[in-house]
Amino acid sequence: MAAGQPVPGEAHPRQGLRGGPSYLTAEHGLAAWFLTTDHKRIALLYAAALTVFFFIGGAGAVAIRMELFTPAADLLSADGYNRMFTLHGTVMVWFFLVPSIPNTFGNFLLPLMIGAKDLAFPRLNLFSWYLFVGAGALLVGALVAGGVDTGWTFYTPFSTGYSQSYVMAAALAVVLAGFSSIATGVNFIATVHLLRTPGMTWFRLPLLVWALYGTSLVIVLATPVLTLVLLLIVAERAFGLPIFDPALGGDPLLFQHLFWFYSHPAVYIMILPSFGVISELVTCFSRRQVFGYTFMVYAILWIAVVGFLVWGHHMFVSGQSLFASLVFSFLSFVIAVPSAIKVFNWTFTLYRGQITFEAPMLYALGFIGLFTLGGLTGLFLASVPIDVHVTDTYFVVAHFHFIMVGGAVSAFYGGLHFWWPKVTGRLYPEAWARFAAVLMFFGFSFTFFPQFVMGFLGMPRRYQVYPPEFQIWHVLSSSGAVLLAAAYLLPMGYLAWSLIWGERAGEDPWQATGLEWRTSSPPPRDNFRAVPVVDTGPYFYHPDKEGPRHDRREAHQNQGHET
Q1: Inter-residue contact 421 to 346 (CB < 8 Å)
Q2: pLDDT at 22
Q3: Structural domain that includes position 167
Q4: Which residues, in sequence order, are bridge partners of residue 22?
Q5: Which residues contact 554 (CB under 8 A, 6 or more apart)?
Q6: CA-CA distance, 62 to 48, in Å (whole number)?
Q7: Are 384 and 325 in contact (CB under 8 A)?
Q8: Is the previous residue joined to 522 through a cis bond, with omega within 30 degrees of 0?
Q9: Contact indicator for 37, 118 with CB cutoff of 8 Å
Q10: What are the start and end residues of every segment in region (Disordered) (predicted)?
Q11: 139: domain CATH number?
Q12: pLDDT tens across 405-461, in order?
């Protein structure tokens, strides 16, 4: 992308920015952070909140894996175990996986990538953060007060008529988080439509911007359905309305249809931004344009549309008609096509590329491997006979985690390492980062691959007591979780170290092509001194241009001489 031709009469965006005030140096004081409308600061506020929720959800996972180390109930009662996996699922799904990439990378990068000064509605952006934090505080309060025992899916009629836990508080917390997501989605859609810099046509947008745009469409269209169904749970519990409870004349399957109508598109809310991140990493570290850019764009939109038509594959054993199951099975195979297109296009982008194995690239390759395996096992679950056999077993748990955790979290860490120099202006120790990336891949594989085996053999999920023949698989899984936890924690150490002792990054340590690399690191308050003008498509890498491994230190030294 030939980005950065300034408006006539203005300074080139590379000039006059070094040493200028940035979001990290201007407006000192705690109050300034909590009242800011700078999209970059709000992204960091989201990152701080998400880190807290990640640790809370991770603590639930640790308790689960410790309990499952032996076949007997050693640490938790049956009710305590129910509350623990509900804590883990609810926090990780709605307070980490759904908002992680859109609310952090999306907030920080979207205006930079399209040459804008900020999002379309800065105050709405800050308000969405307050909604998110308020929702999280309400959920944590419910968990501290006694927890919830329904699972993260809030299945009726247990959640409406039988559970004595804090269901209403947890449901209202998820509703508030949903409003926060809707506000972010509306903001992103308006920003992409209205604030693109001159020359930034639709098919010159980076793929991360397309992914955030498609995700925002899904959020705005699907989240109101989740809001409705959770408010109906609150209404039934509070007022005894006959909606879902069959004892009152309600229909519990209605809840499942409404819940999964949102929650399957929510899978793509979690994974579509990851596709965008991986596309940015693969093209940068292979020094090639993305193969089939147009197909990648249409694949994103295809997923966003067809994702609304496959919710019934979660209900093959719930009593829906055989004809409906066959239709949903067919559509579930159809939606695998655009995901396969992305994997093939990433592979062909790598083919004959000048590949360098920097830490972000290792995370990207790990994502491709884990997501591919998770996607292939999704085809098993799309087949009605196999799904009937493995429903409610650890096979489903493994599939979900390979997609959501192996995929989305790998992409999150890959993006974190890729844009860390831009966010902070500092470089991290590359050797430690590579080690953490490799450790995450193997730790995740050792944690969740044994669950495919035990699930196929019949081990049901959500059981704390299990037959002794499954113990070896649980021991392998719990041991792998130790490696995975180390891989999650290790980057926090060396990234914090880099804030003080890391080398200066310069504007573009990776020799990348996006507009975000055409300004200082960290960027100034308004992102660009001059309005950048775009005159080519994205990812235009010159075949003779050196890659990041050669240029990182050299670029830093050159910048020091120029300064």
Answers
A1: no
A2: 65
A3: 36-562
A4: 524
A5: none
A6: 21
A7: yes
A8: yes
A9: yes
A10: 539-563
A11: 1.20.210.10
A12: 888 899 999 999 999 999 999 999 999 999 999 999 999 999 999 999 999 999 999
Residue 31 in any domain: the answer is: no
Q: Are strands 533-534 and 3-5 parallel, antiparallel or unpaired?
A: antiparallel
Q: DSSP label at 507?
A: S
**Length of the chain, in residues:** 563
The pLDDT of residue 15 is above 50:
no
Nearest CA to 197 out of 423, 516, 415, 506 is that of 516
Q: If 0-12 CB within 10 Å is exposed, 13-18 middle and 19+ buried, where does residue 76 land?
A: middle
Confirm whether 18 is domain-assigned: no
Is residue 346 in some structural domain?
yes
Q: Does residue 551 register a pLDDT over 90?
A: no
Report the C-alpha gap between 162 and 531 in whole angstroms.
Answer: 60
Predicted confidence at residue 33, as pLDDT, reads 87
pTM for the full model?
A: 0.91
Q: For residue 214, with 0-12 CB atoms within 10 Å meaning exposed, 13-18 middle and 19 or more buried, which class applies?
A: buried
User: Token pair for residue 63?
Assistant: 């308790």
Place of tokens 């649980």: 474
Distance CA 164, CA 146 (A): 10
* pLDDT 10s digits, 55-89: 999 999 999 999 999 999 999 999 999 999 999 99
226 within domain boundaries = yes
Calpha distance 310→33 (Å, rounded)? 42
- Rounded to whole angstroms, the Cα distance separating 156 from 68 reads 27
Run of H or E including 4: strand 3-5
Count of domains forming the chain:
1
Give first-to-last CA distance, the chain, whole Å.
Answer: 26
